[in-house]
Every structure is written in C-alpha cells, then in structure tokens.
Amino acid sequence: MRKQTKDMYDRNINILDKYEDFDFNKWQPENITFERKNQTNSIVKVTGLELKVMPHHVFSFVKDDVKQIGAIWFVAKLKGFRNDEVGMFTDALFSYLKRYHAKDYKPSSEYCLAVDVSNGIAITQRQLEAGEINRMLESTVAELKRIIQ
After folding, report:
1. Helix, strand or coil, per DSSP, at residue 134
2. DSSP secondary-structure letter at 80?
C-alpha cells in the first residue's frame, strides 16, 4: 500500500511540474472578476439525468459591451482523457453556465473549458460548437440511463 501512495504522490508532482511555467492567461480574458460558485446548486439535467457540475473557477468579464461568464473545470484521470471525453465535461459546464448564470450574463463559448491536467488537453465550448470535437455527452448519458434502468 505504501508504494501505491508514493506512486500517487509522484504522479501528482509530475502533473504540477508540467504547469510550472504555463501561461494560464490563455484560458481567460483580461479584467475578469471571479464569481462565487454556488456549491448547493450545481446540478444540470442532461437527457433527464441529473449531473453534478463542479467548476473550479467561474469568472465574469465584459467583451464588446456585453457582460459574459466563463468557467474552467480541471479534470484528471490516471492515463488521461480523450478529446471527446474532455468535451463531455465542457458540454456539462456550459449547461451549468446557462442554467445558473444566463440571467445575468451571456455564457462565453470561448472561455468555457475543461482541462485534462494529466495530458494538458483543453477543450472549449467553441470547439464543440464548431464540430472540431465530437459531442458525446447526450449519447453517453442516454447509454448510461439505458444500462442502469
């Protein structure tokens, strides 16, 4: 058990090392205001199934005189996710922004992204909308519902 714990810590250190000189500003616009994350209301429904969406950062900004909202969700899996899998997190995150913030802000496709910290893949909602990444959240949820019912 002790070796497993050491391996886990080593993996975490390796992930952190990858980002030591990373420019995080590319994932957010200038002049942002970090918004309070609502810990109790983080559920979105996808194809009738409730999913808990827990963004790490939610921020607002003004672009072209429009108040917008963006978010970043850092995700991890031992050997990393595929692009379309990271896209599922992004899709769910965009649903979260629409559900909980669209009353006051326009959700930003450009600054709504999930980041797989294991392999450095960052997928934005804009990439999903442009068809650059296969959208599979709804089909995956539908398949999951079929299996559990």
Report:
1. coil
2. -
Per-residue three-class SS string for 15-42: HHHHCCCCCHHHHCCCCCEECCCCCCCC
Q: Where are the alpha helices (DSSP H) in the chain?
A: 2-18, 83-101, 125-129, 137-148
The 10s digit of each residue's pLDDT in 87-124 is 999 999 999 999 999 999 999 999 999 999 988 899 99
The token duo for 120 is: 């450095």
Element holding 115 (H helix, E strand): strand 106-116
Chain CA centroid to CA 47, Å? 19
Give dist(CA 66, CA 78) in Å, integer. 39
- Contact 60/33 with Cβ under 8 angstroms? yes
